[in-house]
């Protein structure tokens, strides 16, 4: 049975690339704690009490950095055309921001240089705007912006 292409709802997702899973990160931190505590204990037994203080301070700072990494490991950005509406969802550190745009009042700016993100702006009275594509390569950002431009109707003049 042929697929009905008019019913498809295009969607793009940009995700943060994480090298380690939470379990792998916890194991690596555990090994670091064991190793650092063993060395600190040897120095403490020899009378150098300031070494364990610095060792525990270091482990605390590494724990803070790893918690920050874990909070942002699942960040993503979604762009979707659903039911006649452009929906942009941005998740950062578990907090979700959702933007709704009318396709007829939306202007999309295609990125032209490497650091530029996709700029989406409502040209209506609300004037909402959002930049997306922080987790994508410059080539992917440009490709998605061009695909989005091709799918959106030309903006109505205000």
Give the topology.
Layout: E1 11-15, H1 22-45, H2 50-72, E2 76-82, E3 85-92, E4 95-101, E5 106-109, E6 118-122, E7 129-132, H3 138-151
Antiparallel strand pairs: 1-2, 2-3, 3-4, 5-6, 6-7
Helix pairs in contact: 1-2
Features:
7 strands, 158 residues, four-stranded antiparallel beta sheet, rod-shaped, 3 helices, disordered N terminus
Can you tell me about this structure?
A four-stranded antiparallel β-sheet has the order 1-2-3-4, with no helix packed on it. It has a three-stranded antiparallel β-sheet with strand order 5-6-7. The model is unreliable at 1-5 (pLDDT under 50). It is built from three helices and seven strands; from the N terminus they run E-H-H-E-E-E-E-E-E-H. By secondary structure, it is an alpha+beta fold. Helix 1 (22-45) runs antiparallel to helix 2 (50-72). The radius of gyration is 24 Å and the shape is rod-shaped.
Record the strand order, biggest sheet: 1-2-3-4
Termini separation (Å)? 43 Å
Query: Topology as H/E string?
Result: EHHEEEEEEH
Radius of gyration: 24 Å
Number of helices: 3
Kindly state the mean pLDDT as a whole number? 90
- Described by the principal axes of the CA atoms, the overall outline is rod-shaped
């Amino acid at each position: 049975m042929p697929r009905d292409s008019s019913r498809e709802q295009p969607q793009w997702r940009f995700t943060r690339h994480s090298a380690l899973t939470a379990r792998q990160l916890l194991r690596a931190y555990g090994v670091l704690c064991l190793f650092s505590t063993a060395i600190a204990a040897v120095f403490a037994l020899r009378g150098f009490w300031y070494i364990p203080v610095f060792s525990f301070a270091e482990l605390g700072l590494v724990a803070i950095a790893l918690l920050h990494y874990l909070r942002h490991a699942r960040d993503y950005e979604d762009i979707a055309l659903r039911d006649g509406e452009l929906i942009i969802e941005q998740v950062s550190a578990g907090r979700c921001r959702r933007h709704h745009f009318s396709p007829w009042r939306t202007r999309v700016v295609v990125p032209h240089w490497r650091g530029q993100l996709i700029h989406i702006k409502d040209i209506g009275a609300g004037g909402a705007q959002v930049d997306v594509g922080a987790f994508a390569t410059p080539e992917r950002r440009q490709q998605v912006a061009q695909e989005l431009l091709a799918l959106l109707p030309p903006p109505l003049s205000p």
